[in-house]
Design goal:
The structure holds 2 protein chains of 2 kinds. By secondary structure, chain A is α+β, with helices and mostly antiparallel strands. Chain A is about 40% helix and about 15% strand. In chain A, strand 6 and strand 7 form a beta hairpin. In chain A, helix 7 crosses helix 8, helix 7 packs across helix 10 and helix 8 packs antiparallel against helix 10. Chain B is α/β, with parallel strands linked by helices. In chain B, helix 2 packs parallel to helix 3 and helix 7 runs parallel beside helix 8. Classes of the chains: A alpha+beta, B alpha/beta.
Chain lengths: ~350, ~375
């Protein structure tokens, strides 16, 4: 894999801007669509895209630490992962970004960057690309065949799979595969109401720019969700679920493992999870104390130290995400409740 | 199925949503644009001169700041600039006891905002009503009893305060009639099952006083049931409630919020889509998606404070949209993580059906009162 220096490429470009008139070139044939940007991440992103458009399948880019400033390896990897397979090595002076499978990643150019990484990674590792068994509920369109095997006693999805047609875009193949994973084990009513919302959420790459400025809904996020919906709704219409009028109260609750732990053990595990994030969230260590975890779905925290109110607010929501990832997906985080200051009222 | 929001038989929509009259904003929201709230419900202070037995504000304590004239003027300027349409002064405090109350109503009205107020009405004497009513779309008196002794017990005040309230309401009605004002004057009963004996006395009182409406609603409680509302107790009151509604006349509408009372505190939806349309601000200046999340314990959802930052900057901030997106995501389940039936409930119900594809929101037609209070 040939290695290029980002700073040299930028310097050459700037030199060429001043010395070339007609037939301006960035220097290398596969860099024809690249224009450097003051935003380094955007600039590198465009450079890799230029390589992709120029037919290159892999490229290694060295970038000086002083150019990247405080960006971490994880940030970099997440930022470019939608473009291909990323491998990052760093030393004190520079970071080497190696990116491959660029031509494979280009097959996912039909979806927004926000969703590409999850889809691309899943496409390399499909789990539910299976033919429909007998007795399954099946719906087929030009993209392929979605099937559901339903529970005998209860209306839930026991198994699911998607058999793509040759015309089916790789992005949709991957999306349907993840959808199957999401819906297995869910009641049909929950699938009807929330499967697409859950899929959209699962595919998000939080390092990328949001697909919209306001509220992200499957309807506005990307047209891929319309294609997924068509298959899913088509399949669901072959069941009785659209005749159901009862309210859907599905909530998986805390996991059995989490429920089995004592409140003390839950507190310890939550404390361990937040301790490792205190510096990132508050800029100092030991800034978050777990006060109470006696309810299996709720954790009360107390902030210590002198972080500002704004920082604490943001941190509180991030802590909920961390605890859901590291401890139990159903956890809710609360700060200490403030009691009514009024002396007139009864509570 | 189409949601025919304009298919109503009432003169006022008191048990529903007016989101159907704002389909342009709903369309923008569905397209992923940043929309300004149609309505903001707020208070000018968290303080109150009453001690109502049922008051949700007991559960909403948070760090207090003072909303002074400079703060509220800037806030109203920002609201008008970004496209907010209505400001209701209800939320978690008694706004009429704030020194900036009159200025707020007048200035907001001048800025083209629809202004409204929910109040115990105690300080709104005739001279104040003469100044105030011309700036308001509606004025709603919180009153959960129609008899003096029970009024004192339920509202946590002296018995003679009932007489002051009755006089104030009479004066409001008289001023409205004399000056030919369009302000709607109504009463609201927050009903706990143990106030059943006051349903009919209050319904009669409302008619006798000549107000435009009495609305009877359920009592909200938090997700832990700290106010002790017995939701199963409402069903035994249905006959009384229908009898109260039967006292309606051509000029007096007595309406029960059946959809909330019959729902027994449960929601049909899990995502919260309504907060960007109907935002709430505490009397402390705290901006949160809704009143149920005002308490310090919900700090994870707190967005900013209008006493510290300009509202338009808070609204345009990444933090605002991060919180709103969280509530609209599978990370949040309103059935489990919210108190019982909030201000945004009917908006949530409607938008949830639209997002799920179970309904299409058609633009509603015809004139409707209080259109900017969804």
């Amino acid at each position: 894999m040939q290695k290029f220096s980002y700073e040299s490429l930028v310097k050459d470009y700037e030199t060429n801007l001043e010395t070339q008139t007609r037939g301006f070139s960035a220097g290398l044939p596969w860099l024809e669509t690249w224009v450097p940007d003051d935003d380094v991440l955007a600039s590198i992103n465009n450079l890799i895209e230029a390589a992709q458009n120029g037919g290159i399948d892999s490229v290694a880019l060295s970038v000086k630490m002083e150019t990247l400033k405080l960006l971490s390896e994880n940030n970099l990897a997440a930022h470019f992962s939608h473009l291909g397979k990323i491998f990052i090595r760093s030393s004190e002076e520079e970071v080497i970004i190696e990116i491959s499978d660029l031509q494979k990643a280009i097959l996912f150019s039909d979806v927004r960057d926000y969703y590409k990484t999850a889809l691309r990674q899943r496409h390399d590792n499909l789990k539910f690309s299976l033919n429909a068994p007998n007795d399954s509920v099946v719906f087929e369109n030009q993209n392929g065949c979605l099937w559901l095997e339903l529970g005998e006693q209860e209306p839930l999805v026991r198994e699911a799979g998607f058999s793509p047609s040759p015309l089916c875009a790789p992005s949709l193949v991957a999306a349907m595969d993840i959808l199957c994973e999401i819906i297995i084990g869910l009641p049909l009513l929950e699938v009807r109401e929330h499967a697409i919302v859950k899929l959209e959420y699962r595919l998000r790459n939080r390092e990328k720019h949001l697909p919209v400025q306001g509220i992200i809904l499957p309807q506005n996020a990307d047209s891929i969700f319309l294609n997924v919906s068509e298959l899913l709704i088509g399949c669901l219409h072959k069941t009785e679920v659209y005749k159901v009028r009862e309210v859907n109260f599905y909530d998986p609750g805390p996991s059995k493992d989490w429920l089995a732990r004592s409140p003390n053990d839950r507190e310890i595990e939550c404390q361990r999870a937040v301790d490792s994030s205190s510096i990132e969230l508050l800029s100092y260590a030991k800034g978050i104390r777990i006060i109470d975890a006696h309810k299996p779905y709720a954790v009360t925290i107390k902030f210590e130290g002198d972080a500002t109110v704004g920082v604490k607010r943001k941190a509180a929501l991030e802590i909920e995400k961390i605890l859901r990832r590291d401890c139990d997906p159903r956890l809710e985080v609360f700060c200490l409740e403030m009691k009514d200051a009024s002396q007139l009222r009864r509570l | 199925m189409n949601i025919a929001i304009d298919d109503h038989v009432e003169r006022l929509i008191l048990d529903g949503t007016k989101i159907g009259w704002h389909t342009d904003r709903v369309r923008d929201w569905m397209d992923g644009k940043r929309i300004a709230p149609v309505t903001i419900d707020m208070a000018l202070t968290r303080s109150c001169n009453y001690g109502c037995h049922y008051c949700y504000a007991m559960l909403q304590e948070n760090d207090r700041s003072t909303i002074n004239k400079e703060v509220i003027t800037a806030f109203l300027d920002d609201c008008a600039e970004i496209g907010v349409k209505g400001i209701s002064l209800v939320s978690d405090g008694e706004s009429t006891i704030s020194p900036v109350f009159m200025h707020t109503c007048k200035y907001g009205h001048e800025k083209g905002l629809s202004m409204a107020c929910g109040t115990n009405g105690f300080v709104l004497t005739k001279s104040k009503s003469e100044e105030l009513l011309k700036h308001l779309t509606y004025l709603r008196i919180n009153i959960s009893a129609g008899e003096k002794k029970r009024y004192a017990e339920i509202m946590g005040v002296k018995e003679e305060w009932f007489d002051r309230i009755v006089q104030n309401i009479k004066d409001m009605v008289a001023v409205k009639k004399r000056d030919k004002l369009t302000c709607t004057i109504g009463l609201q009963m927050v009903l706990m099952p143990e106030y059943a004996d006051q349903i009919l006395p209050l319904a009669h009182l409302g008619r006798d006083l000549g107000v435009d409406y009495l609305v009877i609603k359920h009592c909200s409680d938090n997700e832990d049931g700290d106010l002790g509302v017995n939701y199963s107790g409402y069903s035994s009151l249905y006959d009384l409630l229908r009898e109260a509604e039967s006292l309606s006349t051509d000029t007096y509408q007595c309406t029960v919020k059946w959809s909330k009372i019959e729902a027994a505190g449960t929601r049909s939806y899990q995502r919260c889509y309504g907060a960007p349309f109907l935002l709430q601000i505490s009397g402390s200046g705290l901006v949160a998606p809704c009143g149920m999340l005002f308490n310090e314990k919900y700090k994870k959802f707190h967005i900013g404070n209008i006493c510290e930052e300009r509202f338009k900057d808070i609204w345009a901030s990444d933090r605002y949209w991060e919180v709103m997106n969280y509530l609209a995501s599978p990370e949040f389940n309103a059935q489990k993580m919210c108190g019982s039936l909030c201000l945004q409930h009917k908006v949530n119900e409607t938008l949830d059906k639209v997002v799920k594809g179970e309904a299409e929101l058609l633009p509603s037609s015809g004139d409707i009162q209080h259109v900017n209070f969804i």
